[in-house]
Amino acid sequence: MLDLVVRDRLERILESIYLIQVRTELVNKPSDLITNPDNMLLDSIAMRLQVIGEHVKKINSLDPLLFSENLQIDPDPIIRFRDFISHHYEKTDFEIIYDIINNNLPPLEGKIRKFLTSN
After folding, report:
1. Radius of gyration of the chain measured on its C-alpha atoms
2. Distance between CA atoms of 2 and 45, rounded to whole angstroms?
3. Nearest in space to 79 (alpha carbons), one of 55, 103, 62
4. 11/9 Cα distance (integer angstroms)
5. Are 46 and 92 in contact (CB under 8 A)?
6. Which class for 53: exposed (0-12), middle (13-18), buried (19 or more C-beta within 10 A)?
């Protein structure tokens, strides 16, 4: 049986992915993330990526094998990116964030949904 704390954190990851998807519906290229005043969109997406990384970090400490064995995901890059955003936000590249949104979040979402459905 899946620990309720872990399940809750996985669901919160899905919530953050959903919010990122909603906020980036009209984003078609990396520079679209920085076209609004004060980079508010980029900031909100980076915060949600940080939240995802924090949940991954906590889950990994509670159940070190969940990501690698059950989800077939290496949690280390997610955790390292969370740490980077937390400590070096001013160096965050909008093109990297765009790439993460389009290439990393969809597979993460799919694997978490599949795992939660079967557990």
Report:
1. 14
2. 29
3. 55
4. 5
5. yes
6. buried
Query: For 99, what's the count of Cα atoms within 13 Å in the CB-facing half-sphere?
Result: 6
| Helix, coil or strand: residue 29 | coil
Question: At 89, which amino acid appears?
Answer: Y
Give the three-class secondary structure for 110: helix
Distances (CA, A) of 28 to 22, 47, 63, 82, 102: 13, 20, 37, 24, 10
pLDDT of residue 1: 64
**Sign, Cα dihedral of 19, 25, 23, 54:** positive
Alpha-carbon span 60 to 63, nearest angstrom: 5
Q: Which portions of the chain are predicted below pLDDT 50?
A: none
Could you tell me which of 38, 39, 51 has the C-alpha nearest to residue 12?
51
What is this structure's pTM?
A: 0.93
